[in-house]
Amino acid sequence: MINEYVARKVATKDMQPCLICSKPTVTVLYNASGPDWLYTCDIHLHDNPQFAIPIHSIEYQEAVDKLRRLKLQVDKASVKNSNSWDGWVSHLFNKKPTKEDHNEEVSIENNEADEPEDVQKKYNQQLDLVANLQKKTRKYQLSDTTFNSRIERRKNQQRMLERRKKEQELYANTDPQELATQFTFPSVPNNPVSKS
Ligand SMILES: [Zn+2]
């Protein structure tokens, strides 16, 4: 059995208790390789690495990487912005005509390259994309403890199933009449019916 479960929703009428809290839920984690399935409420599925860890798509991982880069740009831009503000303030105090042109050029270049509002906007958009992709994540890997208990449970079920099968075979191979004569039913003591 592979440790890969897909979250699915069942109809409200098919609700089952959550494995963790026993509250009825429509979310089921299904493992086709078992097959194995378990019910869990969404709150116990999300941000609960002790129970299950989401398996994210490559698309999601790439989006997170891009978000990280944009975050660095946002931080840089806000630092730069405050620097240029400081520069502008200090420029006011030390007005030297020879340096003025040069400083103006630099500040225009900076604004064109990293407009803080644009970087922030891009960052916010990327953040929305990451959040949406995160919502789309349906695959989960159970924590080792949980997965091992699933394997153990499966083994027990198989053992029980085999035992039941053997019992049924034993029963099926026995002639009903023979079975009836083999068993002597103990009579109930002081039974008024048998006495009369
Ligand atoms: Zn729960």
TrEMBL record:
Residues 174-196 have a biased composition (Polar residues). Residues 99-119, 155-196 are annotated as: Disordered. GO terms for cellular component: endosome. Residues 155-169 have a biased composition (Basic and acidic residues). GO terms for biological process: vacuolar transport. It comes from the Eukaryota. PANTHER family: VPS4-ASSOCIATED PROTEIN 1. This is VPS4-associated protein 1. It comes from Torulaspora globosa.
